[in-house]
Amino acid sequence: MLTFSQRAWPWILAQGILAVVLGILMFALPGVTLITIGIFVGVWMIIDGISMIVHAVMSSGSTAERVMLGLFGVLGVLIGGFAAWNPIATVAALAILVAVWFIVAGVREIVLAVRIRKEITGEWFLIISGALAVVFGLVALFWPGLALVTLIWLISVGAILFGIFMIVSAFAIRRPTKSGEEGEKGEKGEKGEETAAA
């Protein structure tokens, strides 16, 4: 039977692909696509927020954890919807918005990796992607001397790296753990023995 984390891999894959696309757009066209980037940031945050809500509903964690995760998800959907609907207003605060969301997303990925480490085989990819997101978010947030274009380039590199690790994490999570494989083999063996005995 698939665990919750293994069922959630398509959401992680979608987040990774969108992050890579966003990073490439920001890196290739930093000066002329700010409005487009605002829309992409909004869509990314909506998908990430929906992912949090799905995790909160299907997770087996404590009620407090699920409520907090659900609230973060709703907040992400609302902010993302505003950013996608009104990207011009988002452009002014784009760098700060993306930096803060990098930090939130990174912390969430690290916490998720620690919680489901016994269910998956690729938890280190989630931890690395989360750590990268936090580092890039902190640098972008607390380095006020950077020019806007330089800041966008920095965030774009972080988005690409974060996305790549998220994509790898999705496929790693999709695979069953060794213990799960052994359990399935054991169940099949027991069923075979019962059939033979009958």
UniProtKB/TrEMBL annotation:
- One annotated Gene Ontology cellular component of this protein: plasma membrane
Locate the transmembrane regions by residue number: 12-29, 35-55, 67-85, 91-112, 124-145, 151-173
From the UniProt entry, list the residue stretches annotated as the region Disordered.
Answer: 179-198
Give the record's keywords alphabetically. Answer: Membrane, Transmembrane, Transmembrane helix
Keyword field contains Transmembrane: yes
The domain of life for this entry's organism is Bacteria
Which Pfam families does the entry link to?
DUF308 (PF03729)
Listed name of the protein: HdeD family acid-resistance protein
Which species is the source of this protein?
Tessaracoccus flavescens
Its lineage opens with: Bacteria, Bacillati, Actinomycetota, Actinomycetes, Propionibacteriales
